[in-house]
Amino acid sequence: MNDNLWYRDAVFYEIAVKSFHDSNNDGIGDFNGLTMKLEYLKNLGIDAIWLLPFYKSPLRDDGYDISDYYSILPEYGTMEDFKNFISKAHSYSIRVIADLVINHISDQNQWFIDARSDKNSKKRDWFIWNDTPDKFKDARIIFIDTENSNWAYEAGTKQYYFHRFYSQQPDLNYDNPEVREEMKNVIRYWLNLGLDGFRADAVPYLFKREGTSCENLPETHEYFKEIRKMMDIEFPGTILLAEANQWPTEAKKYFGNGDEFHMAFNFPLMPRIFISLAKRSNRSIIDIINQISDIPDDCDWCIFLRNHDELTLEMVTDEERDIMYNEYAKLPKMRLNMGIRRRLAPLVDNDRSTIELLNALIFSLPGTPILYYGDELGMGDNIYLGDRNGVRTPMQWSYDRNAGFSKVDAEQLYAPVITNPNYHYESVNVESELRISSSLLNWMKKIIGVRKDYKELLGRGAIEFINNKNQRVLAYIRKYENQRMLCLFNLSRRPTYVELDLSNYKGLKPIEAFTKAPFPRIGDLNYFITIPPRGFFWFNLIIPETDDSMDFEGEDNY
Ligand code: GLC
Ligand code: CA
């Protein structure tokens, strides 16, 4: 296998340095704390980590407002700590990618301080200025709960500057070649320190043109192709993952002809998984997968259920958005901007079968799965913390003080740990869950292991949907070379049955992948199967060596 394609078979895990583990007991997680927890990630089966921004920042947008691109936020540790973390991660064969935030910077960044101070400043043209806030009228506002314009007034020089996100995050001017060059230097700098690639933030917005939505412009694609080329030549084996929250046709374009991003988050699929559950119908998933499956060779969708942001509902219809709010965000506090700020477990009312089904989907649909820290434990959230902070609380390691995250007084933590009785850290934590075989954490370890045993489940396998009359059941086969996995999901909350036309697979025998339980071989008739509420099956289809009559012989280890 070509090792440069490592991302295709990997399981990713998203981490905020601040939230994982506090090694020096100041209430804030740090790189040394992260290093101490690498073994946990290795045992879970994680192959790659995505680090949220850890650069110097006034933290107006939790680090997505960078004030110095070449340094680390002191609270998170030193450059030595960072390098040590990377080399330890690599020694566990865990790769590390980091956020690359290049659309905008912090207004505390020296570049902007210079630019705003004087119209003749050398840095003035690094940003986008106008005498009125009337330019780029068709560019939508993203943080609609906070901002009412993409322009902010700079009183000193009596002009407005453009910002796509918070007003403290001025956008860079990509028409300026110095800006384009500087960001390439930033990329080189961190790759030289050992990073394995980047999750590029807010990619659609780099270039702006009057009369357009200022999203997905050809110039933006061109620039990322240049970056890709540079990375391929100077840092082979490193990757680019796109955060492009767009409609399917636009999202797909970030793969270019296989010469732009290696991966892109599957924003088209994510909300439609939840919509399928809410509607108890397989249609939304099948439709979207059919629309987005033709991507260039060696590219992959990165499949996720939740992340550090609100579950965005910008790219769904009004009707779909209503369905989502009704099903998953009954209280107004659960909503933010155009989305839902909840973690996975609370989102589905802590229903274990639903949590398992959702994970079984992202571990078997084509693409590379990515987990959000803590969701493997079934961590809760805190909707009473502002912005998206409710899904960014400390990782829960044990039932000790502060969930084993830090030894400070609770008041000193960067955010309170979760103490809601249904999700209390005294029971929802790594140590407790490792002790009990039926825990979600142990189940997650299991499913990650099972996925790794079957190549057809990995990114490169093909998918074939199996038609059936019962829309409650999603049925597909993943294939790779001569291996096939039949995957069945009951999206509804009641038991149900399906009759599947598996005539193409006649003679093969389904073996349930988790327990190796045998099922009757596929014959001439439709294959009939019942599935419990929100249940799922993965069946490895094998060429049988024994008769079905032998199915109940032998030991059962489960
Ligand atoms: C991305 C990040 C989000 C951040 C925004 C602005 O969407 O995921 O957390 O606020 O970009 O940088
Ligand atoms: Ca610390």
Task: Give an overview in words.
The chain is of the alpha/beta class and 558 residues long. The mean pLDDT is 97. It is globular, with a radius of gyration of 24 Å. The chain is 26% helix and 18% strand. The two termini are 34 Å apart. The protein contains 15 helices and 23 strands. It has helices at residues 17-20, 31-36, 38-44, 79-91, 110-117, 177-192, 218-234, 248-252, 269-279, 283-292, 318-328, 344-347, 352-362, 430-435, 440-453; strands spanning 12-15, 48-51, 55-56, 68-72, 95-100, 129-130, 151-154, 159-162, 197-200, 239-242, 263-265, 300-304, 311-312, 335-336, 339-340, 368-372, 462-465, 473-480, 483-490, 496-500, 509-512, 527-531, 536-542. The strands form six sheets. Strands 1-2-5-9-10-11-12-16 form an eight-stranded parallel β-barrel. It has a five-stranded antiparallel β-sheet with strand order 17-18-19-23-21. The structure holds alpha-D-glucopyranose and calcium ion. Residues 22-24, 26, 28, 30 line the site of calcium ion. Calcium ion binds at residues 22-24, 26, 28, 30.
Supply database-style keywords.
558 residues; alpha/beta; 8-stranded parallel barrel; 5-stranded antiparallel beta sheet; 23 strands; 26% helix
Write a brief caption for the model:
It is built from 15 helices and 23 strands.
**What Rg do the Cα atoms give?**
24 Å
Overall body shape: globular
How would a textbook summarize the main sheet? 8 strands, parallel, barrel
Note poorly predicted spans: none
Helical segment count: 15
> How large a portion of the residues is in β-strands, by DSSP E?
15-25%
Overall pLDDT level: 97
Small molecules in complex: alpha-D-glucopyranose, calcium ion
Helix content: 25-40%
The number of E-state strands comes to 23
Query: How is the largest sheet built, in terms of strand order?
Result: 1-2-5-9-10-11-12-16
Distance between the termini: 34 Å
Overall SS class: alpha/beta
